[in-house]
Amino acid sequence: MKVGIIGGGIGGLGAAYELAKQGHKVAVYERAPFLGGLASTFDVGGGRLERFYHHLFLSDKTIIGLLEELGLGDRLIWEDSKVGFYYKGRIYPFSTPMDLLRFTPVGLLDRVRMGLVTVYLQRVKRWQKFEGMSASVYIRKWMGRRNYEVVWGPLLDGKFTRYKDEIGMPWLWSKFATRVASRDKTFKEKLGYIKGSWGVLMDALERRIGEMGGEVHVSTSVARVLTEGGRVKGLAVQWPDGRHSEEPFDVVIATIPSFALPRLVDLPADYLAKAQGVEYEGAIAVIWVLKHSLSPIYWLNISDPEIPFLLVLEQTNLVPSSEYGGKHIIYTANYVTREDRRWGMDAEAIVAEYVTHLKKINPAFDPSWVEEYHLHKEPAAQPIMKVNYLQQMPPTRTPVEGLWLASMSQVYPEDRGTNYSLRLAVEVARQAVAAAQTTVAR
Questions:
Q1: CA dist 60 → 80, 132, 193, 243 (Å)
Q2: What is the pLDDT of residues 276-321, one digit of tens each?
Q3: 143-168 confidence digits (pLDDT tens)
Q4: How many Å is the maximal CA-CA distance in the chain?
Q5: What pairing do the DSSP bridges indicate for beta strands 90-93 and 83-87?
Q6: Which of 49, 194, 295, 424 is most solvent-facing, going by the fewest CB within 10 Å?
Q7: 48 near 233, Cβ under 8 Å?
Q8: Phi, psi (5° rounding) for residue 115?
Q9: Is the Cα dihedral 89, 90, 95, 99 positive or negative?
């Protein structure tokens, strides 16, 4: 089979690798000048750093298995997580059950209540029971008003902005299920990173795909999915040198945002409505290269409406600073709607707005600590998984024969995540060629 894959993120590369192993002829087309999508990297301090923060959980079996298969298992390093919660000028550790019991911004009964609900959600296996419920209503009802006001309301508002009251409870359930599955035998949460960056994985996939006769093209756009008689026949491709060509394929797998697929192919009305109906938020991340550490926390949630970012992630509290020439790296991150004013702001303007707030995290911080900064924006970073999302989600198999979609919006009930994107894309790749072979056999 000849398989064309649109998108060179982890999903597209994983699907291509899986099919190349089976002996299929694959070609990946990525319009950006680099591979990896949200997990792509750039150079900082002599090392490589992800444009948007990434780590692994112990439950991320698909990527862990792939790293082992590629001979990169020794690159995977595990550390105890260091999670914190910033509230009214103070950082509270928030990694263990004991940390929750010491979290004094809410009363003892509220802390116990939150802990009991957390244990319950971690033990639920059948997430479908939550379909039809909103996360905000569930939290208010079962964890209580005070826990919602202090912890969950600000987190939902920071993550989903105007959508916060529409988010389905299965999304929140998946968060609890993921975190408990990443605890070791001592009940400490473990987070993993790939020594040398996620770029090591992308490079290995690109190399192995090429060794098996596949093709990986960057700076190359797909202008159209070509069809005939209701089935795929190929892709119209625009090459880096400006050339246009029509490339024949038996199967096409799109690993792009679901709303982008209708721009490439005509779809029946019912499928079109689902593909276009999935809303996304974008992500804006400022990466700060500092002379000194900002805090001892890796993942610091922010519960303060005056601070203009929802998260401070100190990369070098998970990855040794020696990976970046001894520099300390932090991300300040936001999820934002398309109407957010920051889309039109450059790095200097955003940094000027953010920098004073770092002193709230660490009173000793001084702007002279900042050696450099980088700004990255992605308009389709977070699918909005609303109540009854399962009914709204577009199927992976499209009505066009031979055309499949493996988008981040289809990993539900899991949230956006590199492991889930890879797992979905590999599953779709297997299903797509099996379906095509069955059609040919007829």
A1: 16, 27, 12, 40
A2: 999 999 999 999 999 999 999 999 999 999 999 999 999 999 999 9
A3: 999 999 999 999 999 999 999 999 99
A4: 72
A5: antiparallel
A6: 295
A7: no
A8: -65, -40
A9: negative
**Shortest CA distance to 407 belongs to which of 201, 253, 241?**
253
Between vectors from CA 322 to CA 318 and to CA 325, what angle results, nearest 5°?
125
**Quick check: helix, strand or coil at residue 329?**
strand
> Which pLDDT tens digit goes with each residue over 185-241?
666 789 999 999 999 999 999 999 999 999 999 999 999 999 999 999 999 999 999
Residue 328 CA to residue 125 CA, distance in Å, equals 40
C-alpha to C-alpha distances, 67 to 87, 295, 415, nearest whole angstrom: 38, 31, 22
pLDDT class for 438, splitting at 50, 70, 90?
confident
Mapped onto helix, strand or coil, the DSSP state of residue 409 is helix
122: Cα within 13 Å, side-chain hemisphere: 13
User: Among 323, 65, 79, 80, which residue's Cα sits nearest to residue 201?
Assistant: 65
Residues in the chain: 442
Residue 397 is which amino acid?
R
Peptide bond into 413 cis (omega under 30): yes
- β strands within 195-327, DSSP E: 215-217, 221-228, 231-238, 244-248, 251-254, 280-290, 299-303, 311-314
Predicted confidence (pLDDT) at residue 180 exceeds the cutoff of 70: no
Q: Where does 249-330 have alpha helices with state H?
A: 269-277
- What domains can be seen in the chain, in order of their start residue? 2-54+198-278+385-441 (3.50.50.60), 96-184 (no CATH), 280-383 (3.90.660.50)
Q: Is the pLDDT of residue 183 over 80?
A: no
